[in-house]
Amino acid sequence: MKQITSIQNPFIKSLVLLQEKAKNRRQTATFLIEGIREISLAVKGKYEIETILFYPEICSQTEAKKLAPDAGLIEINKEIFQKLSYRDTTDGVLAVAKSKSLQLSDLELSENPLILVAEAPEKPGNIGALLRTADAANLDAVIIANPKSDLYNPNIVRSSVGCLFTNQIATATTSEIIAFLKEKNINFYCATLQNSTSYHTQDFTNPTALIVGTEATGLTQEWRDAATQNIIIPMQGEIDSMNVSVAAAILIFEAKRQRGF
After folding, report:
1. Smallest Cα–Cα separation from 54: which of 84, 75, 80, 32?
2. Backbone dihedral angles phi then psi of residue 78, each to the nearest 5 degrees
3. How many angstroms separate the first and last alpha carbons of the chain?
4. Distance between CA atoms of residues 32 and 39, nearest Å
5. CA 84, 159, 143, 19: dihedral to nearest 10 degrees?
6. 96 forms bridges with which residues in the sheet?
7. pLDDT level of residue 215 (50, 70, 90 thresholds)
């Protein structure tokens, strides 16, 4: 088993860049995962784990090896662990994993799919919350239209508490996703203020995609024009929008209710 004790080690330096730079994650098709639960979910989600790094004062060699028996194993010291760990509290273990392609063509949908599409979400916390809700509802897939953030950003990995790995995820342009949904005969309902009807009046029991946009600008005209139906969540206060992950949860669980959970 290999040990690394210098923060100047070239491999450690490359891992720091993985944490900090989307460019390096794209170029190497790898990213870092922290924590036992997150690594375990990545393994369950069929992500390839290349290397496990563990700090023996917190995580034993035996515990680390169990997470991904076929991965390389490296013992690191406290200085390196603190440099690489992104969270204030973690389990003393990190993994280098291979990213996935995230192509629409890779999605495996059920006969009666329920899908969430989020157009151009910017905040990692919102993306993480959307992925957690999608996992809770056991959606067929989450599709990100015109992504603004690298999905393997450590903030997204962290805020999703591993649900980045439990959902089927794809990214594409709005035009590509609309064409995909039409090809698959999936009705899609766009959450928007314009020309909308109340969400609870619609039938979500057939193949359905629920489309949400950003809080600041909402969905683009392309979505609103193409929608099976534009829908709205009735609001009785002073403001006319709510957090995107909250709105998505309301729509998703109405669809789940109609489908008998």
Report:
1. 75
2. -65, -40
3. 48
4. 10
5. -10
6. 32, 51
7. confident
d(CA 227, CA 209): 10
Strand 93-98 with 30-34, pairing: antiparallel
C-beta separation of 170 from 104 below 8 A: yes
Q: Which residue is it, tokens 């496990």?
A: 52
User: How far is it, in rounded angstroms, from Cα 18 to Cα 140?
Assistant: 29
**CA dist., res. 168 & res. 113, Å (int):** 12
* DSSP-derived secondary structure letter, 47: P
Question: CB neighbours (10 Å) of residue 68?
Answer: 21
Cβ-based neighbours of 13, under 8 Å, separated by 6 or more: none
pLDDT level of residue 241 (50, 70, 90 thresholds): confident
Helix (H, G, I), strand (E, B) or coil at 126: helix
- Quote the mean pLDDT of the chain: 96
Pairing outcome for strands 93-98 and 49-54:
antiparallel
- Is residue 85 within 8 A of residue 94, CB to CB? The reply is yes
DSSP β-bridge partners for residue 142: 116, 169
Question: Torsion angle, CA of 57/66/40/60, rounded to 10 degrees?
Answer: 0
Q: What is the largest CA-CA distance in the chain?
A: 63
